[in-house]
Amino acid sequence: MKVISDAITDSHVLEGYFRQYFEVLHRYAYTIVKDSEEAKDVVQSVFIQLWQRKNDVAIQSIRSYLYTATHNTSLNSLRSSKTRQTHQGRFVAGSSDTGNMQEEIDSREIRKEILAALDHLPDRCRVVFYKSRFEEKTYTEIANELNVSVKTVEGQMGKALRILREVLSYEALVLLLIWSLMQELIKFPGSI
Amino acid sequence: MNNDSNNNVVTDELLAKYLAGEAEPQEAMDVDAWVAASDAQQRVFNNLFDVFQATAAKPYEKPDISSIWQQVAALFTHTPTTRKMRRGWLMAAAAAIAVLVTTGLYLQFRPQPVALQTAVAGAGTIKNMQLADGTKAVLNTGSQLRYPASFTADSRKVQLTGEAYFEVAGNAAAPFVVEGNGVSIKVLGTAFNTAANDSTVVAEVYEGRVMLYNDYGKVIAGAGQTGVYYKLQHRFQLLPRVNKNSSAYATARFYFENDSLPTICEVLSKACHKKIMFREPALASLKMSSVFENQSLDYILEVIAATLNIQYTYEDTGTVVFTKE
């Protein structure tokens, strides 16, 4: 256990934390704000704040501090920027923000697999999953709408995840893998 | 890493909570520790993460930590160490001047350690810049250029991450060099586009000549040619063509020569940072030729629609969709 004011003596120490934690914090922020670019801004500002406050806070665990700050900053960013809209229609239609035909086609295949897998969910489970994923509602919002407890929503989402994991064929996972590889490849200009 | 203590903590409910953006800090820490504990758990997590992010409105993009660090590092450099170094350098410079004066010898000054400035083209935007020597640079979206506020007499060096189009001001005494991605591009007076990904660096030359080089070798590409550097194999290649539309985002010039609608959509989407598409398979075989210079996107879409006898509409999301008449 280190105290921050001791730990961050210069920018090299900070760089170490940055390289160690940026990716996991960014992924955590992404799950909350649901936008990679916004998540990047969140985590950057967490590190900038940490640097600015290095002399006036003493914190027991840098890891806890970073996760907590990322959580709070994400929620704030969500409140100030969020204009939520249902994107289920777009998901089904297979349109994405990528602007590349090949990727478009591949991601459509995966969407088809996932849509088919969602049919295996029991009704109640599917409703909860749709509200969480396609309407970007929080557990509390879903619980209020369906007049159930937050614990129930948690349970249904856990169940959805378990079923999806089992139903999604090996094939779908291979497709996902190909898709992520394609995303790397398409950065290469189409001309060559 | 203590595997046993982590294995029991993470349930499907907790994973779902994390992926749905509902995890408290302590829960997120538990999930991440569990993921890091074994390769098998990492795979399970990655698969689930992919499923969840495939159902998200905006795809997850893995952050490039090094380039983000470069962007913010300047904010973290006010430390005693650097101040001391700067004073030390000043004293060395003073000593050098003293030597110069007393001996009367002609000594060429070593290039000063120039502070580089950073320009970034944020998501969905391009950035137009003019450098101190008059060189025009256009950064494509997500790219970053580090450059000095002023150049020294005998060298013009900039550092690029990503893709940019350059029209380099001629100056034979000071070659213009673009560094980055493990290879340098020396410009011998020219207009060219360069892009890089994890495995290749590409320079497409429209005017003049450029040389791609590093310790492993070099290739010289002239007008109408493309120099390629394969990063993993350390291999250079010369291709006898350029894609004129690669620089369209910078020049607003589009050349279509008997190109199919999928190609046209792809070129326009990339250059305009807008999704332009069609859904009906029958449209894929339509072809056309045309040149557009400095026209608005609407004008271009109008001409394409009229030529191919199809229609286009803007959807609520801003996506442009071509449909049959």
Description of the molecule:
The complex is a heterodimer of chains A (192) and B (325). By secondary structure, chain A is an all-alpha fold. Chain A is built from 10 helices and no strands. Chain A has helices at residues 4-7, 11-33, 36-52, 62-81, 88-93, 101-118, 123-133, 139-146, 150-167, 170-185. In chain A, helix 3 packs across helix 4 and helix 6 runs antiparallel to helix 10 (170-185). Mean pLDDT of chain A is 75; it is low at 1-6 and 95-102. Chain B has 325 residues and is of the alpha+beta class. Helix content of chain B is 32%, strand content 31%. Chain B is built from 9 helices and 19 strands. In chain B, strands 1-4-5-7-8-11-12 form a 7-stranded mixed beta sheet, with no helix packed on it. A 7-stranded antiparallel beta sheet of chain B has the order 2-3-6-9-10-13-14, with no helix packed on it. In chain B, helix 3 (25-37) crosses helix 4. The radius of gyration of chain B is 26 Å and the shape is globular. The model of chain B is unreliable at 1-7 and 78-113 (pLDDT under 50).
Quaternary form: heterodimer
Assign an overall shape of chain B: globular
Distance N terminus to C terminus of chain B?
Answer: 63 Å
In DSSP terms (H or I, runs of 4 or more residues), the helix count of chain B works out at 9
Content of β-strand of chain B? 25-35%
Radius of gyration of chain B: 26 Å
Radius of gyration of chain A (Å) = 20 Å
Order of helices and strands of chain B: HHHHHHEEEEEEEEEEEEEEHEHEEHEE
Uncertain spans of chain B, ≥5 residues at pLDDT below 50?
1-7, 78-113
Largest beta-sheet characterization of chain B: 7 strands, mixed
The secondary structure category of chain A is mainly alpha
Number of strands of chain A: 0
Count the beta strands of chain B: 19
Instruction: Compute the separation of the termini of chain A in Å.
Output: 53 Å
Strand-residue proportion of chain A: under 5%
Unreliable sequence segments of chain A:
1-6, 95-102
Which class of secondary structure composition applies to the elements of chain B? alpha+beta
> What gross morphology of chain A would you assign?
globular
Number of helices, where a helix is a run of at least 4 consecutive DSSP H or I residues of chain A: 10
